[in-house]
Every structure is written in C-alpha cells, then in structure tokens.
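[audit] Reproducing an earlier prediction to check determinism. Same input, same settings, fresh worker. If the tokens differ from the archived copy the diff job will pick it up downstream; this log only records the rerun itself.
[audit] input (293 residues):
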Amino acid sequence: MKRAYFLCLLVCLSTVTALTRKQEAAEQSRRKASLPTTQRKEQVEQTEEQEKYEDEDELSDQCPEPNGYFPDAEQCDKYYDCRDGKPTEKLCPDGLVFNDFSPQHEKCDLPFGIDCSKRPLRQKPQPSAHCPRMHGYFAHEDPRNCDTFYYCVEGKFNMITCPDGLVFSEKTGICNWPDEAQKKGCGSRELFNFTCPSVDDSVAATHPRYPDTEDCQYFYVCVNGQVPRRSGCKLGQAFDERTGKCDWARRIPECKDWYKDQLTDAELDALENPPPKPKPSGGPSRRKGARPA
C-alpha cells in the first residue's frame, strides 16, 4: 500500500515539473511579446546598424577611398575598381600584375620593378609552348642557354637573343652583363673562358682592357680589374691592344685581314670613308634674328 502511494506521488511531481517548464517557456514568450513596440524596434535597428558597420569596414579594406583603383592585400594581380565606395573585383591578364602607382590609373604591368613582396599570391598560370604564363619575358628552358629568352603575348611567343656578351636576367626581364644578371652557370668565366689578370689598385681603377684572342672585333673590360665584360668595336674595326681603343682593322697588323671573308675592299673603304652628308639647301634661314633679303 505504501509503495503504491510513493509511486503515485513521483508521477504527480514529474507531471507538475513538466507543466511548470511549459508554463515558464510560455511566460517568456508572453513577456517578449509584451515588450513595448519602440523597444523591439530599437533592438532591430541596432542589429541592422551593426551589420551595416561590419559591411562598411569590409568595403573600406578594399576601397580606401570612395573612387579609384586599389590593389588586393594578398594577390598581386588582383585589384578593385571602387565607385562610390563599392568595389568591383578585377584581375590582370595572366602574367601581368596590378601597378598601384596611382589610384586614378587602371594599369596592369609586367612584374619587373613592381613590389609584390607584401602581396605575393598570383592567379593560376595558363601556360603554353615556351610561355609559363600568357604574358611576360621568360628564360630559355635549357639553363645552359644564357642569352636566349621568350617574349610572350596572349600565350604566343617570340624568341629573342641578347647581344654578344650579355645574358638574360630573369629578375629584370632584360639582357644584362653576366655579373649583374647573376644567372647560375652563366657567369663571365663560364661564358668567356677569360679571367682578368691580377693588377695593382692603380691599374684596376682604370678598368683595363684586353683583346679577345679569338676575335679581333671584341675585347674584354675588367671592371675594377676583376669582373670581365665582353665588348666590341663597330663593323670594320678591331681592338688595338697597344692603344686600348678601337681602330680600323686594316691599320692593325695582326687584324688587317680579319674582315677579308666578310667585307670587300670597297665595302671597307665605304665604312672608313663615308660620303659627306648633304648640306640642307633652299628655304629661309631659321637662325634667330635672320631677316628676309
């Protein structure tokens, strides 16, 4: 009898607890609904205002000014066209990066000379034959080929060769002296098989010159007496070791026949003795103060 009484008591208490929880939830809903209309409106407005400020903060990161062109913070070839504070995301052609020299100018450029160290990301490359990207200057695939490179536009390439004695620099995108290009395997010693002779400081300061023993037209300049750079004389001339200057090859005994199989005597004569340039004739004088006759 007592056991039945206690079981009945437990069931009744649980029922009362459940009813109490339902009543509590209903009371909370009633209280929320009974809030003054102005208070509910203020809560909604505060939420909307907060979201508006968050959106404006995001926009201000991309648009430091209401109008202009601004770089992306992480990707060097991405930028934003901002109009009245609203950004439109844009992307440079593959291989070019955004030049942020002025917010008033929308300009994509080759990456040489543009600092992308703080925004190093780039879009996924779109490679083609000899072109790692669609636009740009790129080194030859063979690292031993020091003076050949490719100029790519819209994924189509033109192969270009540097002038004699120069090396393509991947850092600057132009041909440069081997010591300045600093391309592995393309230093002066590897290219020329020439080493500057040891000299004292006074001679080194004059950047001494030495003949190329295999080519009369060319010679080596040893910068500060140490770094060799191959240079050359113009067509028809040769380097004279005695004077350290270029002169007409036929005047230098050891090089007098250098152009024998390249140029005729008449062509050499024309190079050495070019015809005088015709003087301008006719028309009034343009000298200051000149008066008509």
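[audit] rerun output stored. Observation attached for the diff report: The longest helix spans residues 2-33.
[audit] end
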